[in-house]
């Protein structure tokens, strides 16, 4: 098994042969996600400085048989972990067979030990077994379904009560723009930062969004809903193998009253169809939360997600869950911060969440 690092800009780049093999393996593997891709992993490193180690397993003749990108997330508040992949909701082990996946899992634990890192977090893929590995379930669910053939069929796929809200949004004077230019990026970040501040959580650094958009090119963009020209809701989406993934989205305090979110997601379905997508991945949500209920209201059925974590002896998992009782006071205080202060301090904190 080989161990390579995807380095920060001040360090040498990945050797071209390794980069080409990485790209080719992800492109060919049926279970690959955007979070396994070199584009994602290098974007995260470029924007946050968290180094990405690429674990690879090779078969006969040195042919790549599996890989696992792991970002080394370090934070003075949340500790450190090897995360596959950083800032992702998927990823994990990607291999030709269970034996190769097990080899990679063992390599991940060995790497953590050698680096003095207390845990490895895998968000998807085959579940490792063995000493130190734990399954984590009952926390998140994913929501995905096929896109309908046209707008009329899409409306009929939405349950009646939510469909009525979408129809009202479609009949409103709200407008929609799409793109990835500097103006769209600034509007999206302002809306997203406002949204997460209102939820009591720190915002990710803007270079993270820019790096992902730059890395994915035509396979990522921003859709923004506007009221009288002013942005009120916005979402940055990824496009992967015929699936649209609304990934970072939010709205202002007026978005709910204006039904801007209803228009945003329906317009994204329409936009994705025009780009040739056939599936809509609404992302993950914690069980029992408002976003979980909202996605069910759209007719999406929750699919339980199982994650894996390796812990060194005597160590406890990182707690990065903003709904944890541990952070209740901090969340309440954060909601009261002026937006300029939240945007100044937030990225310094959020870059350590990974």
How much beta, percentage-wise?
A: 25-35%
Distance between the termini: 25 Å
Low-confidence stretches: 1-13
CATH class of the largest domain: Alpha Beta
Name the helix and strand elements from N-terminus to C-terminus, one letter apiece: EHHEEEEHEEEHHEHHEEEHHEHEEHH
Instruction: Supply the CATH superfamily name of the largest domain.
Output: Gcn5-related N-acetyltransferase (GNAT)
Dominant shape: globular
Provide a count of the helices.
12
The share of residues in helices is: 25-40%
Write down the overall mean pLDDT.
Answer: 91
Q: Major β-sheet, in short?
A: 8 strands, mixed
Going by helix content, strand content and strand pairing, the class is alpha+beta
> Which fold name corresponds to the CATH topology of the largest domain?
Aminopeptidase
Number of strands: 15
Radius of gyration: 20 Å
Number of domains: 2
CATH architecture of the largest domain: 3-Layer(aba) Sandwich
Domain BioF2-like acetyltransferase: 163-296
InterPro entries: Acyl_CoA_acyltransferase, BioF2-like_GNAT_dom, PEP-CTERM_FemAB-rel, PG_Glycine_Bridge_Synth
Pfam families: Acetyltransf_6
Protein name: FemAB family PEP-CTERM system-associated protein
Overview of this protein structure:
The chain has 354 residues and is α+β, with helices and mostly antiparallel strands. The chain has two domains: 2-137 and 306-318, Aminopeptidase (3-Layer(aba) Sandwich); 141-304, Gcn5-related N-acetyltransferase (GNAT) (Aminopeptidase). Helix content is 38%, strand content 27%. The protein has twelve helices and 15 strands. The strands form two sheets. Strands 1, 2, 3, 4, 5, 6, 7 and 15 form an eight-stranded mixed β-sheet that branches. Helix 2 (38-48) runs antiparallel to helix 7 (206-216). The radius of gyration is 20 Å and the shape is globular. This is FemAB family PEP-CTERM system-associated protein. InterPro entries: Acyl_CoA_acyltransferase, BioF2-like_GNAT_dom, PEP-CTERM_FemAB-rel, PG_Glycine_Bridge_Synth. Residues 163-296 form the BioF2-like acetyltransferase domain.
